[in-house]
Design a protein that fits this description.
Helix 3 runs antiparallel to helix 4 and helix 5 crosses helix 6. It is built from 18 helices and 17 strands.
Length: 528
Amino acid sequence: MVLGGRTLFENASLQVNSGERVALVGPNGAGKSTLFSIILKESEPEAGAVERDPWTMVGYLPQEGEAVGHETVLEVATGRAGELPTLERRLRELEAAGRVAEAEYMEAHAKHDALNDPHVEAKARKLLAGLGFREGDIERPAREMSGGWVMRAHLARLLVIEPDLLLLDEPTNHLDLMSLLWLQNHLKSYTGALLMISHDRQFMDELVDQVHEIAERRLVAYTGNYSDFLRQREERYEQQLAAHKNQQKEIQALQEFADRFRAVPSKASQAMAKLKQIERMELIAKPMAPRKPVRIQIPPPPRGGQRAVALEGIHLAYGDNKVYSGLDLIIERGERTVLVGPNGAGKSTLLKILAGVVEFQQGERKLGHNAKIGYFAQHRAGTLDPNKTVFEEVMGSSPTLREDDARALLGSFLFKKEDIHKRTSVLSGGEKSRLNLIKFLVDPPNLLLMDEPTTHLDIQTVESLTMALERYEGTLVFISHDVHFIRKLATRVLHVRSGQVTSYPGPYNYFLEKTGGLANARAALTAA
């Protein structure tokens, strides 16, 4: 497959059988989404073919949601205002053309039947609730909601249909922790096959039994989950490297013999045989080392007081909606605190109170001695100067930063040489997110508040960030839906629910233990 003059993969083979759970991995730009497009027959490969059982129904969740008109969330989830009319129109066209025996007709008919099921609305409501929608939001026009919520509605529609093969492109990007846990548990009992692209390693560890990596323009298959893949890939690399080195030694020995004795009459025939032996060899290419997380060193932040920040008697309400009433909270220096709780419980609001970017009606926020706060918001485009380039933004973040170090850091966060001269106004959401992260890392605060920092990052970049934050010497308070990220970093869990904040002074597993394990913890997290 060639895209933009660049070969993405060649002689690639992929087979997904009924009920299998497969992850497709590879660096950004390797061709993962393109391969999805080929499977969906939206793109044509230069060579090869896509073979599909004619009875197989395929469902696809793209990274970005489809545009919505006036339909409600429930109408999106049941397909009434979008997919169902389209299917009915297409079925009439195929019937008029006499194409009722074709795979497209069979698939369209199966989807049409699924969306016409008399229980479809009840099923959709249950799925929407699992994905975090409140009852009052289900009848709202979908266009009033963010793109992330529209994506959840489209995901609910796919789960209503229950395709035989479900293609998921970064399904966890727009989910909070509770919705992610719900989806994870739902997919564990899903009877169809799954093929997914994901940057969430814990999600893949829980769900997949095969990993296919796009590497060096080939698809390489591994058995097991993502952690199994990492181990097997390292073993495979070591074996291939050893085979390459051994062959090179053999070639060198044969060549040395030929060079030494080709002029000696009694040895000339042996020397020529050695050269022919080299010619007949199928050369083993030197394998490319697996990409690993880049080690990022965060400079030590200024030392703060023992108490980083404290909230006393905080009252905050938006009209009649009371978010917090009499909230007391202390964050100590050096803690790594994760906020968990159901959607709409007030986690992001609490982070904003700690950051001092939202006003409350009563109470007091007390910063610790020498506090230097950094707030990494979910929506952070406004923190960048649209007239500056990527490189200028980073260099302006720290007076002591050297140009070589800035270039190296930008490269580790996937900004290529030509990318660093882009103006920030043309960057994608993911690029802006990565750039803001870099700015925090080169001039770190001693109190770092982060709202979903791993969204739009690939696995290797998430791992680089995780390793950097593990060595970070300041205080960290964060919200995340990435369980691996939480497990690596959190030393304290704050459960936010119904305006109450309950502290669990231990890591995420301690929280699970105290709340009765994952199933009970999920019930506690999602309870209103």
